[in-house]
Amino acid sequence: MFFHKQELQFTASPSKPDAVYARRLQEVLGGQYGEISVAMQYGFQAWNSHKPGKYRDLLFGIGAEEFGHVEMLAIMIAQLLEKAPVEQSEAAMAADPVLGAVIGGTDVQAAIVAGAGARPVDSNGNPWQGSYVTASGNLLADFTANANAEMQGRVQAARLYNMTDDKGVRDLLSFLIARDTMHQNQWLAAVAELQAEGTETLPVPSNFPINQEHREFSYEYINFSDGKTAAEGSWASGPTPDGKGEFSYRDGPETSVPMPPPTQPDPRFFGTDAKPNLVDKATGVIKDKLSTK
Amino acid sequence: MFFHKQELQFTASPSKPDAVYARRLQEVLGGQYGEISVAMQYGFQAWNSHKPGKYRDLLFGIGAEEFGHVEMLAIMIAQLLEKAPVEQSEAAMAADPVLGAVIGGTDVQAAIVAGAGARPVDSNGNPWQGSYVTASGNLLADFTANANAEMQGRVQAARLYNMTDDKGVRDLLSFLIARDTMHQNQWLAAVAELQAEGTETLPVPSNFPINQEHREFSYEYINFSDGKTAAEGSWASGPTPDGKGEFSYRDGPETSVPMPPPTQPDPRFFGTDAKPNLVDKATGVIKDKLSTK
Amino acid sequence: MFFHKQELQFTASPSKPDAVYARRLQEVLGGQYGEISVAMQYGFQAWNSHKPGKYRDLLFGIGAEEFGHVEMLAIMIAQLLEKAPVEQSEAAMAADPVLGAVIGGTDVQAAIVAGAGARPVDSNGNPWQGSYVTASGNLLADFTANANAEMQGRVQAARLYNMTDDKGVRDLLSFLIARDTMHQNQWLAAVAELQAEGTETLPVPSNFPINQEHREFSYEYINFSDGKTAAEGSWASGPTPDGKGEFSYRDGPETSVPMPPPTQPDPRFFGTDAKPNLVDKATGVIKDKLSTK
Amino acid sequence: MFFHKQELQFTASPSKPDAVYARRLQEVLGGQYGEISVAMQYGFQAWNSHKPGKYRDLLFGIGAEEFGHVEMLAIMIAQLLEKAPVEQSEAAMAADPVLGAVIGGTDVQAAIVAGAGARPVDSNGNPWQGSYVTASGNLLADFTANANAEMQGRVQAARLYNMTDDKGVRDLLSFLIARDTMHQNQWLAAVAELQAEGTETLPVPSNFPINQEHREFSYEYINFSDGKTAAEGSWASGPTPDGKGEFSYRDGPETSVPMPPPTQPDPRFFGTDAKPNLVDKATGVIKDKLSTK
Amino acid sequence: MFFHKQELQFTASPSKPDAVYARRLQEVLGGQYGEISVAMQYGFQAWNSHKPGKYRDLLFGIGAEEFGHVEMLAIMIAQLLEKAPVEQSEAAMAADPVLGAVIGGTDVQAAIVAGAGARPVDSNGNPWQGSYVTASGNLLADFTANANAEMQGRVQAARLYNMTDDKGVRDLLSFLIARDTMHQNQWLAAVAELQAEGTETLPVPSNFPINQEHREFSYEYINFSDGKTAAEGSWASGPTPDGKGEFSYRDGPETSVPMPPPTQPDPRFFGTDAKPNLVDKATGVIKDKLSTK
Amino acid sequence: MFFHKQELQFTASPSKPDAVYARRLQEVLGGQYGEISVAMQYGFQAWNSHKPGKYRDLLFGIGAEEFGHVEMLAIMIAQLLEKAPVEQSEAAMAADPVLGAVIGGTDVQAAIVAGAGARPVDSNGNPWQGSYVTASGNLLADFTANANAEMQGRVQAARLYNMTDDKGVRDLLSFLIARDTMHQNQWLAAVAELQAEGTETLPVPSNFPINQEHREFSYEYINFSDGKTAAEGSWASGPTPDGKGEFSYRDGPETSVPMPPPTQPDPRFFGTDAKPNLVDKATGVIKDKLSTK
């Protein structure tokens, strides 16, 4: 269950409205790595969790905070849009270059559809979608997804910080960036803890039977490009991070196999190679549906 | 530039057609974490790269291999579909329970749209989309995204391995799982190397100025749920993975701020609270467009 | 801010797993009129609200309950999937008709992608998307959207009730249907209250100036089909619901205007009618970019 | 069957081209509540109708008019785009601030993809999609959806009216706004008529058996937020709009149930909690696929 | 303007309901090459047309017929769904293998969302979308798109014909296939006529200035694969279809250029290569925003 | 298999950065008819091919070149974005009209999400999607789709050529336009060759039995609009392009059939016309689930 309190975790008011910036801020609200994504992602990982205890509690504990961040950003955006211009004719823009600049930079749907309100979309107006959520049921994989989400989110917030000089907006971003620092660290700590206690180890999933894997390809870097320095990294020689092998390097594939011949599906799919002798030229009737050779 | 060779990196032929399984295999071809995703993701990270040398070479070297995996899976799926049933009427299903089972489990568009062919979609028929690709320009964040992609991909391939007993399909999956092991290790090695050489460190992005972050919130776990064990993990006390702080724990937020008052946009957006005295009741004309209070 | 409690508003456990039904239940979790939609919709309406007080409090009060319903359904679905079959080969289905029936009816991504978990998608696997949310800033319009959402949701839950005889699932649906009854009534009460107090009246938006509307078309039913009974309803004669007019009926449009002539954009858009005399036949150079006639 | 006549219901020509406004007008053509949506929605409701007579005739009668509105807007947009600028280089914009303003505000695909033509997309370029259509087979629910669509559409048209001072565009909008007034009234009249004749009543669906609903939750407002005025509305006390109950108010849920324990799916889904004793540590083989506890 | 008549162009009733087939038939209603696509495509091409007369009349003339085909298929699908099963529990399927087969093969949203009705989606439940429409303003290109749409549509209808033995369904498909034959022929005739009268010729667009094209690459087949027979076709030697050149063949590219060096954007994008000397190590402040080298 | 070489087929560097134009160029990279679409389309057609030899070799031979074009455009876009502005506040735009113009015209996600990098999206930021790909298994249909794709692509490139005066960008476009000329010609040559050798002829699919088609409708133009010149084209009289009939012309449909009566699905779908006598008014229980009439 979720309970709502009409307070915010941190101040979320701009110094003054800025409809152009409101559009940009939509990215960290409704974009691929926005707050809706992490709130939903941690929620689904918790609801699908196969283990009670600290990992699930962690997911619930951070997830509920992120729903509050969704709220903070939505409210901030509504305030940034408070003076969104209504008159947007070409004539008005000709008379006022700043207005012209503003028009081009705003989200027109924020005005027409939402009446100067926030929306569950990214900075290009693409609606948020459920496919942004990763919840596989394997915690080491999912916590790595979470660490990535917090990294991408912090990179975006850092970029947004430099796109405004509004003190109120920057103050909120300084707060959110700090929380991204925290959560980035937490998911990496959880990744380490899963491995340390042996609950899950590398490679993920660690309980897939080794004898069902073609191990001769498991630690060999096969370089399909012609980059000269590809062999210099720690990914081409030395021990592997999973502690179970040694990297080796090969310049392109050693062996290959011929392509299998083209398929011959039932002629009633009317592919190009449906054998003509199967069709009675006079009547057009397909004579034999089974023989395709 | 890409050059194509009409050979495959590994055998990709099933023991016998299986249209039901063909649909399942679409997930690792055209799903969120399928081969199209990683091929495109490594490509865009390379094309947007800001550093010449080993990291870009690595992206190109693995990326080109993944385009070949797209091809292997597409060809495997076409073969699995080679005997896809045409007659799919309810009557036919009543007569043949196996056919009925088959019908429900196949991708109907593989038959109707592609004539028993592979398609750039996932196992539910959702088209592959560009938003599956992550390429932020920050290599530590992006390599973490890559590690996650290889982990999710390996989890899915492992599940698919147990959904068939076809020797040919399992053989290909054993190969792909091995490559996922390799690439998972490689991206983690690259993540470690970036940090070891100081090119990028945690938290990502590491060059965001510390004094622009509200540091008092950077290492504090604020638990917004009531999970009793939330404080037990290594994410609630002790040193943080970025080596720059100490985790602390707090049960819910210490302070909060009141919500800002609702916004009052221009009355010509016709929101509910457009002040009625602004409108001349007789004529309906809005008298003053600027004053909203 | 949102706070999470690890309890549920109502029991949400099935009598036994049923992976086929789990897929169906996804509709009221992640479909167009599922719980994610209403939770988000009420949230965005509240965050964009232009009036403090009872209407905004109502949005927050119901919205937070709906986030808890998202959780109840996700957890129910995870339990329904707990025994989701892994072996799904055609051979296995041939041996077990029930398995075959099951396979065709389940969401394959629930198995391959989520490892027997709930996902933010509908019953056909389409990801939930932000465009399901309506929040225009006009409360009478938006509360009508909310009433519709609760009606559609109750219709779907009622259908789902009859697709299972699992006591636990039916118990949860009986609860959710009751809440849909309540919320349907509440939004209709709020629609009535807005009108009774004159905050907003019909037609929506009520403060659009009457003299800017072509009133001669505001209450005339122009029938563009040939249905004989079209004129019999209360929508073709008598007073209008907004209390401002009288319905009249017309069989097709009285007058019409000719289509404007086709457009002639700049020839450098290379439309078919770019006048050939503008292009120097010998050199292919476009001679005059401005004259298009 | 549909028959087309090369005339328009009303004049649809701008006083002069305005490529910036053309983009805005796309919202009421191809947006969520644009003319394509209502034309298709009324069509599908009619085609799926379970009752012959006046309600189906009404759907056909309005639906066909809306297809004509699609045409009027498409033609208007093509004319607004007739002088869409071709040269859009940064240098050109530097030389001409108005051009710069124009560039940012136009739909670039209208130029590049359509050669100065209308497209089935909204004002942000999102393609129109079938999920905008609601057609449940329950007329009271669907007519409420229609009333909402006409309300949202009229709100958007009213906003668009104030974004231009072009006489021709405003003239068309004055006409469309009048038709929205009419159709808004018609659907509300139809909603009332359905109830008056007892064909369908509240709550929707009215024929869901009362004894299958947890009636103790059907009229109780459970406030999950802390808004002080939540209890003041007509939705918290007094008779309910469906005439079947009395509203009551409760501050938060009275009772709750503990979360069910996490699920334990088949270990071959490789979730984190796949019990380790099931896997032979030496060989990696999963020993027992059935026992998961 | 469109006028609706409550009659159909051809009989559209099945011999008996078949919910499994209803799902398949959705493909030619709401799929990429379904009737909604061609109806909308011909409409937008007409509305954007730059030439009055026969070509635009042709677009209107066929377009309006296609809207009627949308209706025929929607009505057919509603009838096929008339006996769609409600009880869909696993137990019910175990008791009745045919029901099990049926369940897996139907569109669950047709039942849950539409109450046994047609929907604007394809056979996998993907909503129809505006991006299926092609309308570039260049008639030769667009008529080629139309010919392709009618070809793909006829292929799909032909496949669907063999997936049922219902006399009523086959009768409708025989009619639609005949219309596809007609329209396929018409668009090809129009393509030929455009060229014969010199309105537009190959290559499209024919009025792009020849001297702005790198003609040395305009007729050379550069083979980037190793297929031995690639040079045997009429596309590798002899005159070109546009009548303006001679095909030549080359095995791979003759020359190539080195990749440009990686980009160095502003360090405030926090890319990996943001030069460290720009950042004050102690304070983290970025010292110089402009120098990136 | 694909092999990558770190060279380009042609120079792909702009004379100077231009972030506004970078957005436009995304259309031919990640739009419906961009390079990703053709690369993937030719790939899937080859992988699904039912014939070995020259046609499949052609698909592979061109397809691999197109993947290289994806790379050229991505790299060009990254360079165009190299000086993408960071500071984008309203104040900054007021001070610098050119900056204002630039801001409105750029893709904000290129900055916020990609850090000045290319992305797999179109010029409006819509992600590339698998539904852009056509691969039906019928080569004559698919090669027509390919010809259309190259035509649309060349039209777009020609328009983009006139939207910039940057020498480097124009040089690359001159090259790509030349390749579009070539590939347009090649697919048309292949279409002709398929027909000349009788592998596939018109109408597509040519092997659908003639006696299963309602031939009386196969060559008759039925004009559903009132365009006076509709009968003048070569599509209304004379021999048909498939060489199998004669066009005839009819002004509207000759005959029609009445609409079938509305459907009566199971009352448990709770449609409006679920007969009331089936429901016990007192208890609300549905008495008889089977009788719906």
TrEMBL record, chains A, B, C, D, E, F:
<keyword id="KW-0106">Calcium</keyword>
<dbReference type="InterPro" id="IPR009078">
    <property type="entry name" value="Ferritin-like_SF"/>
</dbReference>
<feature type="binding site">
    <location>
        <position position="183"/>
    </location>
    <ligand>
        <name>Mn(2+) 1</name>
    </ligand>
</feature>
<feature type="binding site">
    <location>
        <position position="225"/>
    </location>
    <ligand>
        <name>Ca(2+)</name>
    </ligand>
</feature>
<dbReference type="InterPro" id="IPR012347">
    <property type="entry name" value="Ferritin-like"/>
</dbReference>
<dbReference type="InterPro" id="IPR007760">
    <property type="entry name" value="Mn_catalase"/>
</dbReference>
<feature type="binding site">
    <location>
        <position position="69"/>
    </location>
    <ligand>
        <name>Mn(2+) 1</name>
    </ligand>
</feature>
<feature type="binding site">
    <location>
        <position position="227"/>
    </location>
    <ligand>
        <name>Ca(2+)</name>
    </ligand>
</feature>
<keyword id="KW-0479">Metal-binding</keyword>
<feature type="binding site">
    <location>
        <position position="57"/>
    </location>
    <ligand>
        <name>Ca(2+)</name>
    </ligand>
</feature>
<protein>
    <submittedName>
        <fullName>Manganese catalase family protein</fullName>
    </submittedName>
</protein>
<dbReference type="InterPro" id="IPR039377">
    <property type="entry name" value="Mn_catalase_dom"/>
</dbReference>
<keyword id="KW-0464">Manganese</keyword>
<feature type="region of interest" description="Disordered">
    <location>
        <begin position="232"/>
        <end position="276"/>
    </location>
</feature>
<feature type="binding site">
    <location>
        <position position="66"/>
    </location>
    <ligand>
        <name>Mn(2+) 2</name>
    </ligand>
</feature>
<feature type="binding site">
    <location>
        <position position="35"/>
    </location>
    <ligand>
        <name>Mn(2+) 1</name>
    </ligand>
</feature>
<feature type="binding site">
    <location>
        <position position="150"/>
    </location>
    <ligand>
        <name>Mn(2+) 1</name>
    </ligand>
</feature>
<feature type="binding site">
    <location>
        <position position="223"/>
    </location>
    <ligand>
        <name>Ca(2+)</name>
    </ligand>
</feature>
<feature type="compositionally biased region" description="Basic and acidic residues">
    <location>
        <begin position="243"/>
        <end position="253"/>
    </location>
</feature>
<dbReference type="GO" id="GO:0046872">
    <property type="term" value="F:metal ion binding"/>
</dbReference>
<comment type="similarity">
    <text>Belongs to the manganese catalase family.</text>
</comment>
<dbReference type="Pfam" id="PF05067">
    <property type="entry name" value="Mn_catalase"/>
</dbReference>
